[in-house]
Amino acid sequence: MFLLEVVYGVLAAWLAVYGLNSLALTFIYLWRRAPRPPITLQDENWPVVTVQLPIYNERHVVERLIAAVAALDYPRELLQIQVLDDSTDDTTAIAQQAVAHYARQGIQIEYLHRAQRIGFKAGALAEGLRRARGELVAIFDADFVPPADFLRRIVPYFSSANIGCVQARWGHLNRTYSILTRVQAMGIDGHFVVEQGARSQSRFFLNFNGSAGVWRRACIEDAGGWHTDTLTEDLDLSYRAQLAGWRILYVPGVQVPAELPPQMDALRRQQARWAQGSIQVALKLLPLLWRSRQSWYIKCEGTLHLTGYLVHPLMIATLLLSLPMLFVDSNATAFVPYFLFATVGPPLLYLVAQYERGRGWWRELRFAPFLLLLGMGLALNNTVAMMRALLGRQEEFQRTPKFDIRENSGHWHGSTYALHCSPLVGHELLLAVFSLFVAALAMHGESYSLALWLALYGLGYAYVAGTSLIQGLQQRNKGLRQRRGDARAKEASVMRVH
């Protein structure tokens, strides 16, 4: 029993460390936050910029993306656009048509298609880089819509020779589409406003987020180029560049809106890729980070950053151990409630991020409980993904499907890109039942704080699994209606012929 107590206490303390880190980053942000003054350049000093658009099966949004990039307010003779298309569906024809349209207008835009998707996104970016003319390289994923002044506002920050990358803040095209998109927006705001802001202000290591950023080509090459051995090539290159002495700058005043996944199973896929990729990068680069000459606090913060998704297996482990711990007369359980103050960190981080949005920020707080449930409910999904990384399994890069969803418009249920219900749903429902059962036992034993926490776990798993099931049913019904409509149309056509 002593070993059980030790394991439970260590896991609870380890989980508290990540909560305390969120609290520390929030305090750092509040202490050091200050608007970054804009920088301007004389017209004759603008460098050549290559804009890379890596896409894969994006029929719903590829035209929107290319149109937004073609409208960038930047000298045409200094702007090169690369559409890096690995698609296997009709996206290729749509993209080629759009590229030809803007090429006829005198825009330097080219379409590059690879017959084999070797290296996935990282491979496409590396292939494009070999044909790039730009001193700087901007990257946008298919779901982003950069504003026309993006380059004119970002490029001047490269006037400092040690700046290797400049990352803009992500905005949201469809924040108000559903509760799920509102909750995701809150989570992303927390990362970009507070976490990225605090890390940038404190010269901690931070990451290029894969889109809405600009790299100095010399930095990419000096850091070893794009590697294809992880699912988060952006995080991998970011840390290698900073270990090589380059600095990544975050500019929160420049915002690029993007589409949030409206489908729970699309969000699952995105989270799984991020979780598996971040652990792959941690396994690959943490030894290099700790052997580097960086200060101890940069190494510690970098470690917490790269291993942040460990909170999910820690949550599951403490949940499963809660049942036997209820029957153990242990001092460990007496100390656990003292770790609860660490849980203040994440909610405070998201609260501050919403406050920074300005007028009307408080209206979004009604969705905060759903953010808590989502974070808990995705624990199994992300733990499975992390186990694949720890076991050394190389997975295919699974893109997050996009559907051209705007605020209160757009549909995804009938798209062929919509995903099927996750096979983890059944396991999540079992965890929900288990959590609520143990919560009832804890309540009976007058362990009220533990009972509340376990009940939240149960509701989180029920929310994630239930949303997947409901959306899966909606998708199935939409498909049935569509097939019936097609059958009726075909029958009517045959009758007209006869």
Largest sheet: 7 strands, mixed
Shape: globular
* Estimated share of beta-strand residues: 5-15%
* CATH topology name of one domain: Spore Coat Polysaccharide Biosynthesis Protein SpsA, Chain A
Computed structural class: alpha/beta
Q: Low-confidence parts lasting 5 or more residues at pLDDT below 50?
A: none
Order of helices and strands: HEHEHEHEHEHEHHEHHHHHHHHH
Per DSSP, the total helix count is 17
Walk across the major sheet and give the strand order. 3-2-1-4-6-5-7
Q: Give Rg in angstroms.
A: 24 Å
Give a structural overview:
By secondary structure, the chain is an alpha/beta fold. The chain has a domain at 41-271: Spore Coat Polysaccharide Biosynthesis Protein SpsA, Chain A (Alpha-Beta Complex), CATH 3.90.550.10. The chain contains 17 helices and seven strands. The chain has helices at 2-32, 62-70, 91-103, 120-130, 150-154, 179-201, 217-222, 233-243, 264-291, 296-306, 311-326, 331-335, 345-355, 368-377, 379-390, 425-444, 448-497, and strands at 49-55, 79-85, 109-113, 136-139, 163-172, 213-216, 247-258. Strands 3-2-1-4-6-5-7 form a seven-stranded mixed sheet, sandwiched between helices. β1, α2 and β2 form a beta-alpha-beta unit.
